[in-house]
Amino acid sequence: MLYYQDLYDNISIKEWFQVIAHGLPLDFSFAGYLTIIPGLLTIASIWILKSILKKLYLIYYILVALFISAIFILDIGLYEYWGFRLDSTPLFYFFTSPKDAMASAGFGMILGGVVALLCYAAILFSTLYFTTIIWIRKYKIPFHRLYQSLIILVITALLFIPIRGGFTVSTMNIGKVYFSDNQRLNHAAINPCFSFIDSFTRQSNFEKQYRYVEANEANEIFNEIIENPKVNTPTTLINTTRPNIILIIMESFSSFLLETLGGEPGLAPHLNTIADEGVLFTNFYANSFRTDRGLVSIFSGYPAQPTTSIMKYPRKTQSLPSIPKALKAEGYHLYYYYGGDADFTNMRSYLMSMGIDNIVCDKDFPASQRLSKWGAHDEVVFDKLWDNLSDGQIEAPFFVAMQTSSSHEPFEVPYNKFEEKRLNAFAYTDECIGQFIEELKSSSLWNNTLVMLVPDHLGVYPFDVNVQSSNRFKIPLILTGGVITESKRIDTIGSQIDMAATLLSQLDIPHDDFLFSKNLLNPKSPHFAFFTMPNFFGWISEDEEVVFDCESEKIVLERGENTETNLKKGKTYIQKLYDDIAKR
Fold it and tell me: Which residue in 501, 492, 574, 557 sits closest to 528, CA to CA?
């Protein structure tokens, strides 16, 4: 709260103490876990030499001090970007690609974090170790060793009480600290070490998570909220069922960046023009907050999960349907262009299991062109894509996915239009997209090409949007290209998972395998958007929305008259999603 004082500038003294008081149970619980080993060492001290005991305490306290310091410093650094307390997600990113995991932070931020970590660890270690050494120096091996060992063992066993959170039916969980309608106060009360460890327990046993509705009732509700049966609508947006397709996945863009959607004027002029000349979906939403979740939503029409990323599990992702798989069966040639590391977050594994075996990534660019922390800047990747298109290296009919990366923190780009780094990075990517579209228009490829533009996840602008607000998830979906029959705006509510059914329907390709994806142009399909972040989900339908915090089990945002009905639909949806993950 001190570090992010601008987020807590209107907090009263009473609320500061409420945060501390409500957070204590998690602090006690985690402290209980950490005290088990000192308890056992206390028993050992009755039987072993002081010199051995000192070494054991030394090793343990070094590990504990470093672990706690790393968690708290990392948590402080990431909260600004993620809007929730630390969980196991960073480990997934770090172990799949350490370089990319660190790319979001500038050198100064990394250096400051390391210095803060070491200082914090030194203070913790000194406090723990030297107070213990003072005790060891005065300690004498007592008489009745067995008797005293049993007493200390019982006392150590009593740590079960704070660890479990008392003797009530429910065990200790993050939701127990929630006390306020202000979610930032609830977040401040969470012990990030407890949150980090707790998240590991939700990486398996998916069929036991989010049990809200009895199975038979859940099946009935679910059948009403999915597109059933899956219907292909007549081709209305494009003039052919077999166009070449270019999908541009835009890093971190949001509707707030487009003037045509009521956003910032002059920030993304090229996207505004493209949207006005093509087909713009005006009520479209991201499904999550990270690229690995977003890619699965876009390609496989599969909803993002609040406690995990299905991309972690290649055995499960290989069973998912996808746009590339469906197109490959129709004779399409598949390509993926990305300036960064394609192995980050198991992305290569997922893409290849979806049938994409032509992947261009950072390794395909000379070192002189990999000037971004993420690899090659957007203009370099677009240039390579255009060169490969124009010289015939990309064989028609083709499906090409192009993932941008320059509008990702630390937002360092070779472009100077805005002083604010974040806005400047978005303007840079907009310029790169505009130039590529103009080149494509000037070629013979344009007349038989469909270009789709969509962000990978929620936007990172503006800075002050509530992370649990549906506005944070609102993004543009734009279709352009020579095959577009007419310019239009479509106001139907949908999200990234609906792209698969909608596109395949336009191509007159069956989409029965896409359980969660809905054809946005099917008037008989129920239209809504579903999104998730760690610990909460949102459900939006026409004139209605509800956001539910799964930890506190409270509604944190509602609009409309049918809150309970929509909440039950959302609960059923997430329950069926986890049922499906468990079966894969």
Answer: 492
The C-alpha angle 410, 413, 419, rounded to 5 degrees, equals 85
Nearest in space to 97 (alpha carbons), one of 342, 363, 404:
342
DSSP track, 543-572: TEEEEEETTTTEEEEEESS-HHHHHHHHHH
pLDDT reading at 343 higher than 90: no
Each residue's pLDDT tens digit, 31-85: 999 999 999 988 888 887 777 888 898 999 999 999 999 999 999 988 877 777 8
Residues 393-407 have a mean pLDDT of 97
Give the C-alpha separation, 362 to 152, whole Å. 58
Cα-flanking dihedrals φ and ψ of residue 380, to 5°?
A: -70, -45
Considering the entire predicted model, what is its pTM? 0.81
CA separation for the pair 414, 21 (Å, rounded): 48
Task: Name the 3-class secondary structure at 214.
Answer: coil
Q: Is 258 helix (H, G, I), strand (E, B) or coil?
A: coil
Close Cβ partners of 271 (under 8 Å, ≥ 6 residues apart): 253, 257, 258, 430, 433, 434, 453, 476, 478
E strands, 420-543, in order: 449-455, 474-480, 488-490, 494-495, 529-533, 536-541
At 544, the amino acid letter reads E
Residue keyed to tokens 């995991």: 101
Domains and CATH numbers, the chain: 13-201 (no CATH), 215-583 (3.40.720.10)
DSSP 470-491: GGGGEEEEEEESTTB-S-EEE-
Calpha distance 237→232 (Å, rounded): 13
266/245 Cα distance (integer angstroms): 28
Give pLDDT, residue 361.
Answer: 94
Distance CA 119, CA 97 (A): 27
CB neighbours of residue 142 within 10 Å = 11
Question: For residue range 479-520, what is the model confidence (pLDDT) as tens digits?
Answer: 999 999 999 999 999 999 999 999 999 999 999 999 999 999
152-159 long-range Cβ contacts below 8 angstroms, 24+ apart? 152/39, 152/42, 152/43, 152/46, 153/43, 155/39, 156/35, 156/36, 156/39, 156/40, 156/42, 156/43, 159/32, 159/33, 159/35, 159/36, 159/39
Average pLDDT over residues 457-461: 90
Q: How many residues does the chain have?
A: 584
Residue with tokens 């006390």: 179
The pLDDT of residue 468 is 80
Whether 537 and 522 have beta carbons less than 8 Å apart is answered as no
| Gap between the Cα atoms of 561 and 331, Å rounded | 48
Question: What confidence score (pLDDT) does residue 181 get?
Answer: 73
- Cβ atoms 222, 573 nearer than 8 A: yes
